[in-house]
């Protein structure tokens, strides 16, 4: 029962995020924004949809139960949710599940974006491991961590290329590390 409730809450959260993303997409495109990576977006949607289906099937078929480490894993899950909300609020109307770039837009460098270039991708990567591990769905955790890494190896370069070409992204992060721009800069000076 707890498993079904947990999954239902997460799926409901994702549905709300899709509504927000669609609203943001309309707003940005009305201002002249351009979409990139449309060819790989359906693959990403498929991966995220298959994640829930696979996890549910694994838990049901193998009769998986709540992990003995559920308290730690649930703490990790709550951390990812706080980070998710922080990242979404920081981007405001620029947040989207698609790669949509508004030409000349100012680069967001507040919230978690002060420390990590792609916090939302980091959060999703953690979730794809933590959520199934809470219910001992090891196959789901491993498989979708690998699939997520594969799609991000396409998505992140596509997003960065679009941002470099259409905004001041490269200038903003010039001389900084690829994923941890401000964290590692402090160590470089010593």
Describe this entry's structure for a reader:
66% of the residues lie in helices and 3% in strands. By secondary structure, the protein is mostly helical. It has one domain (40-94, 103-185). It has a two-stranded antiparallel ribbon. Its main location: membrane.
Which helices and strands, and how do they pair?
Blueprint lengths: L1 H29 L3 E3 L4 H21 L8 H22 L7 E3 L17 H15 L4 H29 L2 H4 L10 H6 L2
Helix pairs in contact: 2-5, 3-4, 4-5
InterPro entries: ICMT_MeTrfase, Metal_cation-efflux_comp
Keywords: Membrane, Methyltransferase, Transferase, Transmembrane, Transmembrane helix
Membrane topology: Multi-pass membrane protein
Globally, the shape reads: elongated
Distance from N terminus to C terminus (CA atoms, Å) equals 53 Å
- Provide mean pLDDT, rounded: 92
- Major sheet details: 2 strands, antiparallel
Subcellular location: Membrane
Pfam family, one: ICMT
Protein name: 15-methylpalmitoyl-4-hydroxy-2-pyrone 4-O-methyltransferase
Main location: membrane
